[in-house]
Amino acid sequence: MKLTHILTTALLTLPLALQAQKQLTTEEFEKQLAKSGDAQLLDVRTPDEYGEGHLAKAANVDYKSPDFREKIAKLDKNKPVYVYCLSGGRSAAAATALHESGFKEVYDMKGGYLKWNTSGKAVEGANKAGVKGMSSTEFNKIINSEKVVLIDVHAKWCPPCVKMLPTVTKLQKEYAGKARIETIAYDPNKALVKELGVEEIPAFLLYKNGKLVTRKNGFMEEKEFRALLDAQL
Asked: DSSP letter at 124?
């Protein structure tokens, strides 16, 4: 009977937990945030990321900072909290931490700032850095430089990107003369990334004869890279 009671209690409380911590699409996030007059909007990226562009009225509370939990403890737990990061990883973890800390309503934006920005939605401070990235003309020269070209869109703060870098560097040398593998950093090339329709990183865009053949996201093993390239050679 005790086990049955425990299972029943868990099943009854599960919907409440899911309701308290909910993931929304950018469209849902935008509409619901606009309707909520007392919402608390958190950007959990680094201060540098925040300084290069963020949602209007968003407060910057870096999820990776040591005092993250101390800062969220100062917020009103009875008011809804809307949270986002760049592509969803940190905000999902932050949403869990908020829920565990006793916040009643927590909404996490799926796809994060990257998805929001590439959708053409309004942001603040986007031109603060004044960094000139790669132009479309320069990019087109790259994808037309070889018969097969693999573009790796990455960032130094993206763990999967950093983990795959040795493999990418190794294959750049190994496939030289057969295919070109080019890395493009996200931060200084936001305009280009938006133009390419990249909504999450790491992103891999494979071109053949200047035409996009396929795109993939997320961590890939070396054998997956090889299969991707060899299929077009």
From this structure: B
- Residues whose CB is less than 8 angstroms from the CB of residue 10 and which lie 6 or more positions away in sequence, other chains included: none
Phi and psi, residue 190, nearest 5°: -60, -40
Tokens of 94: 């932050």
Whole-model pTM?
0.64
Contacts for 157 with CB less than 8 Å, ≥ 6 apart: 46, 49
Residue 43: name the closest of 126, 111, 112, 121 by CA. 112
- 172, burial (CB in 10 Å: exposed 0-12, middle 13-18, buried 19+): middle
pLDDT at residue 73, as a whole number: 94
Q: 87-100: per-residue pLDDT in tens?
A: 888 999 999 999 99
User: Cβ–Cβ contacts within 10 Å for residue 2, how many?
Assistant: 6
Residue from 44, 114, 153, 158 carrying the catalytic annotation: 158
Rg of the chain over Cα atoms, rounded to whole angstroms, equals 21
Out of 161, 196, 205, 220, pick the active-site residue: 161
Is 85 annotated in the active site? no
Catalytic, 158? Answer yes
